[in-house]
Amino acid sequence: MVKDTSFGSRLFDGINITALALFSLVTFLPFLYVVVVSFSTSTTLIPKTFSFEAYKYIFSADTFTRSLRVSILITVFGTLFQLIMTSLMAYSLSHKNLPGRSVVLLMVLFTMLFSGGMIPTYFVVKATGLLDSLAALIIPGAISAFNLIILKNFFQSIPEELKESAKIDGSHELGVLFRIVLPLSLPAMAAFGLFYAVGIWNQYFSAILYLTDADKYPVQVILRQVIILTNGSIGDTTEIENVPYYGNSIKMAVIVIATVPIMLVYPFLQKHFAKGVLLGSVKG
Amino acid sequence: MKGWFKASRQHLALLIASTMVIVSACSSGGGSETVNSNTGNEKPTATNTTSGGDSGQTEQEPLAIKLMYNFDGVEFPKEGNDVQKYIEQATNTKLTVSALPGSSYEERLPIMIASDDMPDAFPIPRRHQKLPYVVNAVQAGLFWEIGPYLEQFPNLSAINPVIYENIAYEGKTYGLPRERALARRAIQFRSDWLANVGMGTPKTIDDFYNMLVAFKNNDPDQNGQADTTGMTAKEVGLWFAPYFGAPNQWKIEDGKFIRDVQTEEFLNALKFEKKLYDEGLMNKDFAVIERPEWTGAAENGKAGVRIDVTGSTVGLDSVVKENLGEQAAFSMISILEGEYGKRINMEGGHNGFFLFPKSSIKTEEHLLRVLKFFDDLAGETISNLFVWGLEGVHYEMKDGKPVAIPDNKHGDDVGAPYGAPLGTLAPAINAMQGELSELGQLEQELNAENAEFGIVDPTLPLISETFLEQGAQLETILSDANIKFVMGSITEEQWRGEVERWLKSGGSKIAQEYEEAQSKLNK
Amino acid sequence: MEIETAQVMTIRLKKEPLWKRMWKERWLYILMLPGVAFFAIYKYVPMWGVLMAFQRYQPHLGVMGSEWVGLRHFERFFSEPQFWTLLRNTLYIAILDTGVFFPLTIILALMLNELRSEIYKRTVQTLVYVPHFLSWVVVVGISYILLTTEGGIINELLALIGMEKVQFLMSEFWFRPLIILQMIWKDAGWGTIIFLAALAGVNPSLYEAARIDGANRWRLLWHITLPSIRSVVVILLILRLGNFIDLGFEQIFLMLNAMNREVGEVFDTYVYQVGMQQGQFSYSAAVGLFKAVVGLILVVSANWLAKRLGEEGIY
């Protein structure tokens, strides 16, 4: 690599590094605060003591372990399923000469703007037999129109010659997709995998809507419940006085437990964002 | 206005009388013995022949009941837990419970009604009582009118009739209310601070004001620092209004409905709050404060007064003791006397009410058995469970009185999953009396006294179409104006202008519709 | 002229009968089938819910049984006394969102891309994307702790340097800056991901070649980096326009109070309050339909414009 070592360039580096350091500090400190409070017992603004009380309380019942298991399960399988569904469709749509392509794209785009709403969707989920099954948290959101359109765009940017040459070698469409297109789109797949994973992990409303068996609730339902119980915010019915009181540290601990697993996904995907993973080597 | 007031007093006397009857009746037999006669000949199927053996009397097979309700705790107990088994045994039922987190329950209700996937009974949250989807479904006859059957059930009919009236639709009773105190507002104050500054329990509005001043200026915690404030406040304190003579939301004068903001008394109350704000006797961020900080100020010994409900003082007292030591203590009072005598706002007196869908309960017999289940829940056995828990687990008997076992998980095991959502007649009425703490005693006394001096919101059982459609945005006009006035960003003139705007945008139409609904009801 | 005719010629040459071309691509259609079925079943079948906007929808009667009211809900919506305030507030925040937040995510992505140290880059990336996982309730709670006049950290600092305390949370002036700052804080890092993915696809040999030609950093940025994310930026922008007047309802709702409602109330919060909280499904559906139509107009125009400018567009 040839390095640009001019003064202007170095100055830029300096400013860039400092600015990003400051920004990451600002974004991370509040989360650190959440973590610190979760390890304290005091109710004051600035925590003074250290303890595992909150975590002990949370894991004393098996709700959290169970709901975490559910969340991990649906996130792993759901992400795979949704990525496959999306790539198959995006790959077909990335062929600019496919007859009917723009009609399909327009129809997809349309669903981003218009939707039937919660009640009709509930009926469809019911009619397709998904009520009270974990699939209800995955299948009705199988393809995000947003992700599909952008992924299609990524696929399009892969040079035609590569696909053509593979076809000449006798590869089927599926072969082209799995042997050429997907490996070359790893950064995009990592990004959309992350989007889907986070989407599934964060959803609580479908769980509330489609599941009646509390054993199947993912961790977000529990998180929201704890936050609302302590905050008394949107839509609270909680006006009963003799419900157990959940302190701030427990709330924070629940936040930590419900967010850290999905946060950990990112560092593992990160290496795929490294510059020019495969493109360089193939195209050379 | 006067008429309502009187009516509520009569009801109270009735309530006390009927309560006493029930308590004495139950102490002899227990809830489950008051079986109504017509359940005996129900479903004479296989059950009778198989279970009929030696007992002579035919035992009924447990009734399968599907329930769905809000659950305001974290973990719902596992299927087959001891508490549920106990309930099923005592009521001869087999329960299927779907407990949705309270916050989500509301959102799911309309879908449940739309899809007709209704259980045998489910509660309508208090806030949804007059929402169109509920009103319309009730009016369309989707639910049983339970009023005519209630007299067969001693416990259900012991619920204060005022409450049944408050949840009636066009004068008919469909709902089974989850009873709670009718007037619960409480001024919670640090009694140890009060002693430190040499004052007694406040009785009047002036006393209250002086207490706040002393809490702010006279170093009530005696640590030599000016680090205390008067009151921790959240939202505008409309609870002041009755002390200044203002009505509870609405009053009827010569047949006309008049909103509180249209009275000078209300404005006087608002001016009092403004004075507290201006003099720094309450927090300046009352309009945006978050619940943990609001209550935290009282829990950490910063503020000496919090306005909440009678039921939360015991908890606050124990938290403050834990935080600051045994000397710290909270006490409370509900009514501050002024020139208008003793007055306090009454609420609906319930925390939502159960409805019984006709689609899942097909016959009258079935309905009676489901109602019987709720009646049993309100009987002695289950009331004891709801209040005390299971003997040996949550409480022990000492000298013939129940004593809670320290650090028991009553709230997690019983209170949140079963007691709070399923109790209809207040469980305390039929449960054993334990040794009450001073504060607990005070709580009961205040609740009883408040009901006596409570003033009613006459619009509770009435429906106004305009309010249904635009109520939320109209209420915002008023609540915003109140906050702005207290914070001094608008003058008295401008505040009156906002009230005028409210009237024009629909307020006066609402008044008129209430008037019509009222005259229809009186017919 | 000549070139044009040549293009027409090639297109003509390609033009086989439609069914033949379709048969040739049959495998692509088969691959597409699961996706199309998904959209048909889960997106288009429930589309009858749109009809609610023209009804007095009652859950227990269903769409078939509910009374038809024509355009009544739309008339009510457009004649709301606050309609113009709502429109103004919504547009204001939407423009801030698209004009400030969106470019900032691109700049942040470029800044990250310019970092030379791989470890530092990864660390920063991980840290800036953390807040995305905190819900708005938590973010607003943190804002309160920072900004309240009763012991809020920022106000304590102001007091320390002898300045007057500011009612940040209850001020018309500060409302919009706070909203946009919260957005940036929470989601700017998250928003970079898609650009980073696009940047990762750039062929490094392009940079090498340009450097050998003596290009400096700015030229590399201008001639290689930016063009490589251009099409993603365009697509994202078009899609964003579709949801132009959809603002993060929860955030704004939680930040609203009496003192800032005049500038803060937007369509989404209003509809939540009037429609959803009051159980007025039809009214919410009508407002939703209005927003969708506005979105559709914006998307179609933007797509048309993009194509005119030689971009690919969405369809």
Automatic annotation (TrEMBL), chain A:
Tell me which Gene Ontology terms the entry assigns under biological process: transmembrane transport
> PROSITE patterns attached here?
ABC_TM1
UniProt keywords (A-Z) are: Cell membrane, Membrane, Transmembrane, Transmembrane helix, Transport
Q: Which InterPro entries match?
A: MetI-like, MetI-like_sf
Report the membrane topology from the UniProt record. Multi-pass membrane protein
Primary location class: membrane
Q: Which residues form the ABC transmembrane type-1 domain?
A: 68-267
Gene3D superfamilies linked to this entry: MetI-like
GO cellular component: a single term: plasma membrane
Subcellular location per the Swiss-Prot or TrEMBL entry: Cell membrane
Q: Which residues cross the membrane?
A: 12-36, 70-91, 103-123, 135-155, 176-201, 250-269
Q: Which Pfam families match?
A: BPD_transp_1
| Claim: Magnesium is one of the keywords in the record | no
Output the PANTHER family linked to this UniProt entry: ABC TRANSPORTER PERMEASE PROTEIN MG189-RELATED-RELATED, POLYGALACTURONAN_RHAMNOGALACTURONAN TRANSPORT SYSTEM PERMEASE PROTEIN YTCP
The UniProt family comment states: Belongs to the binding-protein-dependent transport system permease family.
The name under which this protein is listed is ABC transporter permease
The protein's organism comes out as: Paenibacillus oryzae
UniProtKB/TrEMBL annotation, chain B:
Q: Which InterPro entries match?
A: Bact_solute-bd_prot1 (IPR050490), SBP (IPR006059)
Give the region (Disordered) as residue ranges. Answer: 28-58
Q: Where is the composition biased (Polar residues)?
A: 33-58
Endpoints of the signal sequence? 1-25
Keywords from UniProt, A to Z, are: Cell membrane, Lipoprotein, Membrane, Palmitate, Signal
Record SUPFAM superfamilies: Periplasmic binding protein-like II
Does the keyword Cell division feature in the UniProt annotation?
no
One Pfam annotation, family name? SBP_bac_1
Q: What is this protein called?
A: ABC transporter substrate-binding protein
> Can you name the source organism?
Paenibacillus oryzae
UniProtKB/TrEMBL annotation, chain C:
Stretches of the chain forming a coiled coil according to its record:
none
Q: Which Pfam families has this protein been placed in?
A: BPD_transp_1
Keyword Transmembrane among record annotations:
yes
What is the protein name stated in its UniProt record? Protein lplB
Q: Where does this polypeptide localize?
A: Cell membrane; Membrane
Listed PROSITE patterns: ABC_TM1
| Parts of the chain that traverse the membrane | 27-45, 91-112, 133-154, 174-199, 220-239, 281-306
Sorted keywords for this record are:
Membrane, Transmembrane, Transmembrane helix, Transport
One biological process term from GO is: transmembrane transport
Q: Which family does it belong to?
A: Belongs to the binding-protein-dependent transport system permease family.
Q: According to its UniProt record, where is this protein mainly located?
A: membrane
Source organism per entry reads Paenibacillus oryzae
> What InterPro entries does this protein map onto?
MetI-like (IPR000515), MetI-like_sf (IPR035906)
One cellular component term from this protein's GO annotations in UniProt = plasma membrane
Please state every residue range assigned to the domain named ABC transmembrane type-1.
87-302
How does the record classify its membrane topology? Multi-pass membrane protein
Keyword presence, Transmembrane: yes
